[in-house]
Every structure is written in structure tokens, then in C-alpha cells.
Amino acid sequence: MSETTKFHGIIGDRNPIDHGGGVVYQNDPDQSPEVLYFQGYEGEDGPRVTVSRFCVEDNVLDDLTWVDWAAVASYIGIEEEALKGYATAPNVLARAQVYESVASYSGFINLDGEPRELTLEEAEKEYGEFVDSCHAAR
User: Fold this and answer.
1) Using DSSP, how many helices (H) and how many strands (E) does the chain show?
2) Number of domains in the chain
3) CA-to-CA distance for 125 and 127, rounded, in angstroms?
4) What integer pLDDT is reported at residue 62 of this predicted model?
5) Is the terminal CB of the chain with fewer CB neighbours within 10 Å at N or C?
6) What is the pLDDT of residues 64-94, one digit of tens each?
């Protein structure tokens, strides 16, 4: 984490590398916030983690024009208009959670076409200090 990195929060589990979830941060105030999202699974060689990275735009509706908003809203159990409200909310975490909902419904590959596949140990080694520093920034 650089001196200019702003930590916005965590979506999903408090320990996203081990239990899934994302870190919402912003390296440059002139650029969109980003999510570093971790999804664990059991691989043939032990625990593995898929790491996806995607931006959080100011208007998720304009960014993800291909989304069936009614289907995503039904999938997560809220009204479509409420979901669309979160998609344009000033709160970065609210918008990040909309991206997470869309990805949970349609696949994270639709937000990051080239996710990284790592062992749990590799993910901890590469991202553990960053996640810990984000927690400390709160």
C-alpha cells in the first residue's frame, strides 16, 4: 500500500484471502476505486484462490450495460429499484457490493477476464501484507 492509497473497506468476509471477499481501495484520487476480490476453493494440490481485480465506477448501471438487473436483484433478494439505487450511490462500498452481486450471479470472469489463480500460500505471501495494511488504515 503506497502513501497515497485510500482504503475504503472490505466486502465479504473480514479475512478475504482465507474466506472470500474483497478489499476496496484507491491508489490515486484521480482514478476509480478498485476491488481486489478473493475466492477460495479446494484444488487438486490443496487450497487455492482466484484473485480478480475490477474498478468501481461512479455509475455501475452505465458501466455494466449488459446486466439483467431484475435477475440480479431477484438472485440477491432485493427490489430492482433498490439495487439500481445502490449502483449509483455516492458510497463506494455500496457500489462495490453491486459489482460483487453481479459477479456472484453471472461470474467474476465478466468483471476480470484474466483472474489470477494462486495457492492459498501464494495469495497470502503476495497480498497478505496489503490486506493487513488496509485493515490497519481503518
Assistant:
1) 6, 5
2) 1
3) 6
4) 98
5) C
6) 999 999 999 999 999 999 999 999 999 999 9
